[in-house]
# Entry
Amino acid sequence: MPLFLAPNVGSLPTVTNYDRDSDTQTSTGWLAPEDLELIRANMPIVYVDAVPVRVDELGNVTEVGMLLRVAADGTISRMVVTGRVLFNERVREALMRHCEKDLGPMAMPRVPANPTPFTVVEYFPDPLRSGFYDPRHHAVSLAYVVPVAGECEPTQQALDLTWFSPEEAVGDDVREQMTSGHDRLIRLALAHVGKLP
Amino acid sequence: MPLFLAPNVGSLPTVTNYDRDSDTQTSTGWLAPEDLELIRANMPIVYVDAVPVRVDELGNVTEVGMLLRVAADGTISRMVVTGRVLFNERVREALMRHCEKDLGPMAMPRVPANPTPFTVVEYFPDPLRSGFYDPRHHAVSLAYVVPVAGECEPTQQALDLTWFSPEEAVGDDVREQMTSGHDRLIRLALAHVGKLP
Amino acid sequence: MPLFLAPNVGSLPTVTNYDRDSDTQTSTGWLAPEDLELIRANMPIVYVDAVPVRVDELGNVTEVGMLLRVAADGTISRMVVTGRVLFNERVREALMRHCEKDLGPMAMPRVPANPTPFTVVEYFPDPLRSGFYDPRHHAVSLAYVVPVAGECEPTQQALDLTWFSPEEAVGDDVREQMTSGHDRLIRLALAHVGKLP
Amino acid sequence: MPLFLAPNVGSLPTVTNYDRDSDTQTSTGWLAPEDLELIRANMPIVYVDAVPVRVDELGNVTEVGMLLRVAADGTISRMVVTGRVLFNERVREALMRHCEKDLGPMAMPRVPANPTPFTVVEYFPDPLRSGFYDPRHHAVSLAYVVPVAGECEPTQQALDLTWFSPEEAVGDDVREQMTSGHDRLIRLALAHVGKLP
# Structure
């Protein structure tokens, strides 16, 4: 259950469409909205998801960061960093761009050396297809755990960024603030780093 | 260096475009060719690559299978199984569909339980961008090693399927028959299974 | 909480020490019990853990198998397949040997082609050190998900083998039958294959 | 082929046994040499291997670090960081300890958040058993790629530390300076991070 539904999402220009601004640039310039709609209705879109974490000096994950923002389903929810890969952009570049966009310029994200995601998240317009839901489109998202060493401050459309211990991150309080399968993604990320309680 | 350039590729309808037939179905039916072109020029496309292997009873990879076919760059080359993920299709389903399409209905591919690819291959129209090349588009491909237990026979546009030992698969003879970075993909796959010589 | 404590474990020769029979053979023959004790008190021991699963034709994990047996801590608990790697034995061979020993000769386990474990489980005599507990020794265990295609029947010291859906496997009923962190290992395994609920 | 055989290894106390000093401490204090020999002859030993790398701001591996030292086989060879896991020591702690021991106190190694090694290296006294060789014992080594951010200087028994580009690291010049399969380990590490040429 999300915190609450965003009233009149359409009238809040700064939070309407969280990846609107920087994501529609393409090889031929900017993609017209109707063309983006055509693509979204016909092809899976390449995404990256980043779970920001704090690590201690031995590499143990001690905290998980979650944004509070207007999600794709219109709710205000806890979320991970997420966004499109652009034409001609390396996956690594997209990951860094979205981390900086959402966590601020001083976050110092450490994108892993290994290009393999810890899981592949398949978001579908049908919530039952995979358990991961996006009403806008079918997205295939490469998900990474990204340690951040610097100071984070939510930017752009994010309303807040909060750090949770692994226990808190999988607890009922936080789970109820997440939709679209993001709570499950957090559990998969914590399992990957051996910290799922 | 490919074996040879395919003469008059355009006049060979059955081999012109190796993923033409089954891949353009979408949520709204079939995608018009001009719309596919629009998408290809503007967005990365989701792909899967499958490296077919034979394993012994302990799971050791003993042989790597390679197709001989008209590649995206117009050469006749050794290649792995590759193709698009369709709208509303799970990655796992795409992997199985392309394996069956290329290896035949009796191949009995064993798609891994773990959805994580062993590497993410980024194909670009610019051959220097990542070392993986596709003149048609920018594709982000999830690459898997897929043990096949049954009888394989090349189908559709593939001209041949040959099995190589790990040593042969990375040898100069086979490497010279591969283009677009597929030889490197084979090495990454063999490293993943601990069999890179 | 285990099902119940095994009364007089010492007087039940067939279940006393679940890896007694086949595991103490070494390069110099059989290791004397006092030497095994010396080693256990001084060095981490190499182990393998195998989580047996059933998969559908697309590779989706549909069921998890768990043994009922006398655990290292003396309880009768639900457990995964586990055991030592012997001197001069490949990890892959140990994995196959323990699967056959515990699941029977017709289980047809499919040891993965990739030698990398999905996690490394560190069992300590101190239950608080890592959350994984073994009163006998410090063991570093390479953990794998192993699809089994054939008929399983518990052998040797196992009292029972039961298959659970992913939901059941992480439910309270099954969790209460597990000790030493094995319930957590099941969750890590299900996360690895994308099936953690 | 190693650079040269170390003459009179036994008379060079500082380089005789590269993991002698800090590795034999156990739960019961220091392990007597004869007991260590007993264990080595009877049980696989748990090891960690670390491939030190330099990464750019996007996480791309740009350089691989290799030590020059007296190897287990008595040759002076290029090697990765390697050493035992002690009784009661977490794998992560062993990894950090060996990195600091070999690379110096200012190296600032970043042990990955994910505890899964990129490969499992099985060293055997028989050079043909797996291709990885150690005349002293059977070791099962968890191998990690470890980015180092600080200043490295070889310490203890290492004679030198040199950084190589991925191309150089797999080139004939460097390969000829490595023994025991360490050249292959470098290739597996580079494949894991997508940088195998």
In short: Chain B is about 20% helix and 30% strand. Confidence is low (pLDDT under 50) at residues 1-23 of chain B.
